[in-house]
Amino acid sequence: EAVAQALAPTEAGDGSVCAALLQQEEQLEVLERLDFVLRNISELRREVEELRSSLQRLAAEISAEVRSHLEETQRVTRRRRFPFARERSDSTGSSSIYFTASSGATNTDDGESEGGYTTANAESDYDRESERESEEGEDEVSCETVRTVRRDSLDLVNEDEAHLTLDPSLEEGLGQLLQQADRLHDGDEQQKREGFQLLLNNKLAYADQKEFLWRLARAHSDMSQITEDADEKRSYASDGKEEMEVALQKWDQSAECHQWYAVLCGQLAEHESIQKRIQTGYVFKEHIDKAIALKPEDPKAYYLLGRWCYQVSHLGWLEKKTASALFEAPPTATVQDALQNFLRVEELSPGFSKAGRVYIAKCYRDLGNHSAATLWMNLAEELPVNTKE
User: What is the membrane topology noted in the UniProt record heading this document (predicted)?
Assistant: First the structure.
């Protein structure tokens, strides 16, 4: 018993020693792991710094390359001369790569007003295509992705129900209203403003009618063109686009709805970034193609498609690089494509637009047919000058 009592403390002490040794081993293992983590963090930090330095060098190289290309293009541009004199020197057009709205210019010509947008002044930019490509097209490019549809507060019914439930007196009033709206749309700035207000005043009664709604969107496009304030331009285009977003959910087979949705997207894209503008280019082309499929004899749609083709065929180096970087299949079109669409406009409606004839001349010039270009310039001059295209 005495021996047992003597052994007990010794066994207890051995256990404490073992526990202490195990604890030390665990601490050493933890320290080794921490040291491993710290070494990895240090290596990662060094790799991040190297990557950052590489990116900075790459950015500097790209910037230098772009600057060098722009300077070289501008030098070449200044040496170019075209045989056609400039019609106007106070161009108010924009040179964005797709479908920008006219910068506050009054537009009463059928071709331009129905088109609802301009990419550049039709006459004043006649001898400045290279300048638009290098100095404006590459220095000021800025195209919009389609936003999520926002429904109007009015609960729209479907098209068939709308015609069935419209009161006969309201239907007669609608016909007169639409005629008046068309007449005011073809007038001067003040008449366009009156037409816009007229349609707004009747929206509560006729917002479920297709013919009314696309005219309201057209009036928003008119207001976006004639106002001078940039924020107001954007607001009018945005509101009109939203009207058409709602309309297209009900009337996907309406050529006018597709056409004016495309136009308003283009006008709104004037105020957006280059990425959104490029995205808008695809949207614009899609809806114009649908409008033509639904109404193949409408000259307005071919005029708009011709403008799109001409713009795409003259994209600058920077714009092409941007489109290639953002999309797997950048938009493609040739001057010949644009010419065919403009000639189709003349076939359907001779003298439809002064700008349309000027663009035919520009296409022939670009294709090297200067005699045809001169002929179409003379034909354009025969049309009355009643716009600020």
Answer: Single-pass membrane protein
Share of the chain above pLDDT 70, in %: 67
Q: What is the pLDDT of residues 245-287, one digit of tens each?
A: 999 999 999 999 999 999 999 999 888 877 788 888 889 999 9
DSSP per-residue string spanning 265-326: HHHHHTTS-HHHHHHHHHHHHHHHHHHHHH-TT-HHHHHHHHHHHHHHHT--HHHHHHHHHH
DSSP SS3 for 105: coil
pLDDT at 90: 36
Condensed to tens digits (0 to 9), the pLDDT of residues 355-385 reads 999 999 999 999 999 999 999 999 999 998 6
Domains identified in the chain, total number: 2
Whether the pLDDT of residue 111 is over 90: the answer is no
Q: Give the amino acid at 20.
A: A
Residues 332 and 262 in one domain: no
Distance of CA 284 to the CA centre of its chain: 8
Residue 126 is assigned to a structural domain of this protein: no
CATH number where 325 lies: 1.25.40
- Cα gap 159→161, rounded to integer Å: 5
Q: Which domain holds residue 337?
A: 310-388
Do both 316 and 292 map to the same domain? no
The DSSP annotation for 206-259 comes to HTT-HHHHHHHHHHHHHHHHH---HHHHHHHHHHHHHHHHHHHHH-TT-HHHHH
- The 3-state DSSP composition of the chain as helix, strand, coil percent (nearest 5) reads 70, 0, 30
Distances in Å between the Cα of 83 and the Cα atoms of 108, 311, 366 are 29, 21, 12
**Is residue 49 situated within a structural domain?**
no
What burial class does residue 312 get, using C-beta atoms within 10 Å of its C-beta: 0-12 exposed, 13-18 middle, 19+ buried?
buried
Percent of the chain whose pLDDT exceeds 90? 45
90 occurs within a structural domain: no
- Using the 3D structure, point to which of 296, 322, 339 is the last residue of a domain: 296
